[in-house]
Design goal:
The chain is 40% helix and 13% strand. By secondary structure, the protein is an alpha/beta fold. Strands 9-8-10-11-13-12-19 form a seven-stranded mixed β-sheet, sandwiched between helices. It has a five-stranded parallel β-sheet with strand order 1-2-3-7-6, sandwiched between helices.
């Protein structure tokens, strides 16, 4: 039923007689509040109609409706505190209006105006982001946002203070907040949603998951997805552990008020999370590209019209004598004039996006501001290090009480461990979690030092996080369930709350289950919020082969091309201890999500075929900017070898072998492959003219071809020979030393290619 058809339908209703104590049936809400709630419902519907009008005019390019969900939205917005975080999806327009989003902002969203404070015109309409109102950035891959909600629930409950040295002082949300996650019934089929509910139950977090069940996920019936058509059935066993499950009719005002208030009171009391199956209607097709009359029977279409909450709520309040038909119908005319006027104003002067409006919103990292944050840490907390290291030495965490920068050259693993200790002792904002990262399981840790001192502890499968938990406690360093998507979803929650989380993915090979969280949510947050919400985190992961045959598929992957193709994500790969410390420090103060790749083959390595790769731990003031390569043998001009990570020390050994053949080779260590230091590459090509690129990932979409493409496009005239690229073969690494030799670049291959290129 169209907007004004509802108004006309209301006008035809007969006034009711006022009933005594009737407001008690509305949860004690007064008439003013009820009228305001209804007004926001009407406002949301009118804006939706305006979006369809603008679509026909060619000013709005997409339409997706919220019709039928408005009542639940306004009830939820009323009973939640204004500061309670909301993580919703693209059908919560009435919630936005209830929180105070303006009509003008909604029209900006519809036409993609750069003045939209929600997304700056980055996203389709109805993807809200109003963090100042507690409405966190939304995205199209629904279902995955539930993990963010569970993660934020855990982050709010977490007792670790946020000192504001790197994050948001005190936290974005108060400790008594409730996280409300709205989701369509179809999206609850996603594994992310199931894990989110599990985590909220397991951690007893303040979460409410509201499932808006209209019966259809585009053209897929709810009966095709769940037993009894109810998405909550698979969670009934969790009721033993505190989960409250409710089913109610989201088209009935009294029932919605009663049930939602019950859930808020339950969760706010700390008894556990809540999940609810809410019957709602779908007043329009899934989106502008869908037509539900093609698959929905006429009787069912009519059911949705008759149960439209705008009609039902109006009739109920009129029947109860709270309002006359005219009092409610007149809202339609008043709101129509207001929306039409604002829409005309906006569309008469649409501000379209310029390149800088988009391209400057992908990364927040700025070298100067990042360095300033680090120097502030040193100034305020750096002086405690010597005393703390003496304390750690007495406890047996380190073999000496010397500051790491005063020690002899060390391995990559040792430098990473020391860097993490430095970061943890200088800020409360950083927490670290993942699979096997803790020294002990929580139940062992809780038994005290007498028990722990009898055990060595774990501290990561490669010992990079060894003794961190012992030093800083199980609230800051802890093991998670074996679930990469859950690990990254938890990280999003902590980042929203104002911490700088450091989730560890044990092997980059196992990133796949968490890929949607990484690519679609973590890396997009800054851009899809128009630069208003940062997502700082350091995702540490091991990567690569050269494990003397011990690796194989899922333990020797170096597919970095996959990750450099993700806008919004920095990809960092140190090749030695000094760079690991300098880059890891920068990562934690960058303000952005960083994928920090640690080469397993270099963790404990002291040399590569005789080439020494130990390095001094750099002074605490030393940071390495992203996109700044290191150049070895800079005076050489016969040939240049460009590489990074594991293959870098191999290339340095080849450099020595080439010198024995009277070939002078320059070696470039990229150190970060996103961003890439194009200036150094340009200078190198101009001076050397013969370029060999060695990359452990594969050819298709890899780092090597990316660099070669740049050189061919921008620097072709400087070349005296074709650019040579050595990559891994188009196969997963096979087991055993023979598998390594077959699949990944070998030193002999690099040397031969370099000699041939020098002689070209």
């Amino acid at each position: 039923m169209a907007y004004f058809e509802i108004r006309d339908w209301i006008n035809k209703l007969k006034p009711g007689s006022e009933k005594k104590e009737v407001l008690s049936e509305y949860g004690g809400l007064d008439k003013k509040t009820l009228k305001k709630m209804y007004k926001n419902m009407v406002l949301a519907r009118r804006i939706e109609q305006e979006e369809k009008t603008l679509l026909r005019k060619g000013l709005c390019r997409f339409f997706i409706g919220c019709g039928g969900k408005e009542l639940v939205d306004v009830v939820a917005a009323h009973f939640l505190a204004d500061t309670d975080p909301f993580i919703g999806y693209y059908r919560n327009k009435a919630f936005d209006m209830s929180r105070g989003v303006s009509i003008k902002q909604k029209i900006y969203e519809a036409v993609g105006d750069v003045r939209s404070s929600s997304s700056g015109g980055m996203l389709q309409l109805s993807h809200s982001s109003y963090p100042e109102l507690g409405i966190l950035p939304q995205a199209s891959p629904t279902g995955s946002h539930a993990l963010e909600a569970a993660g934020l629930g855990e982050a709010i409950k977490c007792s670790v203070p946020i000192d504001g040295m790197l994050g948001i002082k005190g936290g974005r949300f108060s400790r008594d907040s409730i996280v409300y996650c709205a989701i369509g019934e179809g999206s609850t089929s996603s594994p992310e949603f199931h894990r989110a509910v599990f985590y909220s139950v397991y951690n007893n977090t303040p979460n409410i998951f509201g499932i808006y069940n209209c019966g259809w996920a585009i053209s897929t019936s709810v009966q095709e997805q769940f037993p009894e058509g109810n998405p909550t059935t698979s969670f009934e066993g969790f009721q033993r552990f505190g989960l409250l499950i409710e089913n109610f009719d989201g088209t009935e005002i009294k029932e919605s008020i009663k049930t939602f208030k019950k859930m808020v009171d339950y969760v706010r009391s700390g008894k556990g999370p809540a999940i609810c199956n809410i019957n709602v209607t779908r007043e329009d097709s899934h989106s502008g590209s869908d037509d539900q009359t093609h698959y929905m029977e006429p009787e069912l279409q009519n059911y949705h019209i008759e149960n439209d909450p705008l009609r039902k709520m109006a009739k109920e309040m009129i029947d109860d004598g709270l309002f006359t038909p005219d009092e409610l119908a007149v809202l339609y005319d008043e709101i129509d004039k207001e929306v039409a006027a604002i829409s005309a104003e906006v569309t008469a002067d649409i501000h379209y996006k310029k390149p800088e409006d988009v391209l400057t919103k992908v990364y927040s990292y700025n070298k100067d501001s990042a360095f300033d944050r680090w120097y502030k840490l040193i100034k305020e907390k750096g002086e405690i290090r010597q005393e703390r290291y003496r304390e750690f030495h007495k406890k047996g965490f380190f073999p000496t009480d010397e500051l790491p920068e005063n020690q002899p050259p060390m391995t990559l693993r040792t430098a990473i461990n020391y860097t993490l200790f430095d970061i943890f002792m200088m800020t409360d904002d950083v927490i670290l979690f993942g699979e096997d990262v803790a020294d002990f399981a929580r139940e062992v840790f809780d038994k005290g030092e007498e028990v722990m001192n009898k055990l060595k502890g774990k501290g990561g499968v490669f010992l990079t996080t060894k003794n961190l938990q012992r030093a800083f406690g199980p609230e800051r360093i802890y093991n998670t369930q074996l679930d990469e998507a859950g690990i990254l979803g938890r990280a999003v929650g902590h980042s929203y709350q104002g911490r700088v989380p450091s989730p560890e993915i044990q092997f980059i090979d196992y990133m796949s289950p968490g890929y949607q969280q990484l690519k679609d949510r973590i890396a997009t947050t800054y851009q899809r919020s128009a630069g208003n919400v940062k997502m700082p985190m350091v995702i540490r992961t091991s990567y690569g082969g050269y494990k003397q045959g011990a690796g194989a598929m899922w333990h020797s992957e170096a597919n970095l091309g996959t990750y450099i193709n993700i806008p919004g994500l920095h990809v960092v790969i140190p090749s030695n201890a000094a760079d690991a410390a300098g880059l890891l420090r920068t990562a934690f103060v960058s303000g952005d999500p960083v994928l920090f790749c640690e080469a397993v083959a270099l963790y404990n390595r002291r040399d590569w075929d005789g080439y020494n790769i130990l390095a001094k731990y750099p002074p605490l003031e030393k940071l390495i900017p992203f996109g700044e390569a290191e150049v070895y043998n800079k005076e050489a001009e016969d040939i240049a070898i460009i590489s990074y990570g594991i293959t870098l020390p191999i290339c340095l050994r080849v450099m020595e072998q080439l010198a024995e053949k009277n070939v002078s080779a320059r070696v470039i260590d990229l150190r970060t492959v996103k961003p890439i230091d194009w200036e150094t590459i340009k200078e190198t090509v101009e001076q050397c003219s013969r370029i060999l690129i060695v990359s452990e990932d594969r050819f298709h979409g890899g780092v090597g071809p990316t660099i070669a493409g740049y050189i061919g496009d921008q620097l072709f005239d400087y070349l005296d020979a074709p650019v040579r690229i050595i990559t891994s073969k188009d196969a997963r690494v096979a087991y055993g030393p023979d598998g390594d030799e077959i699949c990944i670049p070998q030193q002999a291959d690099i040397l031969q290619a370099a000699v041939e290129l020098a002689e070209y």
